[in-house]
Amino acid sequence: MNSKGHDGYVLVTAAYNEAKLIERVLQSVVAQTVLPARWIVVSDGSTDRTDSIVNGYAKQYSFIQLLRLTTAHKRNFGAQVHAINEGCKELTSLKYEYIGNLDADVSFDSNYFAELTMRFERDPKLGLAGGFITEEQNGSFQSRKHNRIDSVAHAVQLFRRECFEAVGGYIPLKYGGPDWHAAVVARMKGWRVRSIPELPVRHHRPTGTADTWQRDCFRQGCMDFSLGSHPIFELIKCIRRLPDRPRLMGSLTRLSGFVWCYWTGQDREVPGEFVTFLRKEQMGRVCSLLMPWRFKSDDDRFSAVSLEG
Predict the structure, then answer these.
(1) Alpha-carbon distance 235 to 162, whole Å?
(2) Which 3 state secondary structure label does DSSP give 287?
């Protein structure tokens, strides 16, 4: 493999006070057998050592560029999307085939992007792909329970450029979920979305620990409502979690957030055609769960792997 940067793929990372974790992802990217053409690391008002750490790597690797935003704010989803979009603007003049969002709290093996871009080359309809997220459990990294092959985690979303432009990039949403929104729109426009189990990605900050656990679960329920999740789908998803005692309270809290949005008459942040498409997908999953014999092929059954999204 060529160890020099080329025009195959570019990356954007939004980093807000990530000094404790960001060196892992920096080490992972510079160790890739195929390097990105450009990597914009957006320091979004960081007040710790994030900037100096990134600058140290930028001095050694010309494809790394630090972009500093100076508006101070708390950690929130709208600000993260704004930072990513600012990073994307720095890439508009470049020629590249793939563009990826990469969180500041992950790491992966040196062949990760070489293998991932190969999947795109093999499948012209693949618009969005990424590895499987793993988190540390009992001393080793294991796949998250809610990983699905038809859903790519925000932390490692890599788009074919035509797909990213057709989707319109990421949009800021009050309760989060820009990655979910982008994936649904990609499928609406005829692109395939796949997560690759053979490409593990180590996530070093478990989901929800950046805020209080209960608040994050409640926020996820609000996110589900804001993006138009079907009430039946939401209820079944939460019921299926009830026997899992560690996730019981999280499931109930998430459902309460969903119900609260209904009760208070919250507006949805997506158009009607998005809601219609999403609900058709979700009810297809419900049918495939209840009547699996009706689904013969992997493409018919892939969305039944889980009811997590």
Answers:
(1) 36
(2) helix
Does domain 9-203 fall into CATH 3.90.550.10?
A: yes
Cβ-contact 233, 282 below 8 angstroms = yes
| Max CA separation in the chain (angstroms) | 57
CA distance 61 to 5: 10
What b-and-e string marks burial along 58-73, b requiring 16 or more CB atoms within 10 Å of the CB?
beeeebbbbbebeeee
200-225 burial: b if 16+ Cβ within 10 Å, else e: bbbbbbeeeeeeeeeebbbbbbbbbb
Tokens describing residue 45: 């008002």
CA distance linking residue 123 with residue 115, whole number of Å = 13
Per-residue pLDDT tens digits for 94-115? 999 999 999 999 999 999 999 9
Q: Is the pTM of this model over 0.85?
A: yes
> What span, in angstroms and rounded, lies between the C-alpha atoms of 56 and 60?
7
The amino acid present at 191, given as its one-letter code, is W
Cα separation values, 264 from 161, 226, 258, Å: 39, 12, 10
Q: Which of 264, 183, 259 is nearest to 224 (CA)?
A: 259
Cβ-based neighbour number of residue 257 at 10 Å:
21
78 alpha-carbon distance from chain centroid: 15
User: How is the chain split into domains, by residue range?
Assistant: 9-203, 213-304
Rg (CA), the chain: 19
Token reading at 123: 């499948």
> What is the signed CA dihedral for 12, 203, 249, 258, rounded to 10 degrees?
20
Tokens linked to 212: 């209080």
Q: What is the pLDDT of residues 5-45, one digit of tens each?
A: 446 999 999 999 999 999 999 999 999 999 999 999 999 88
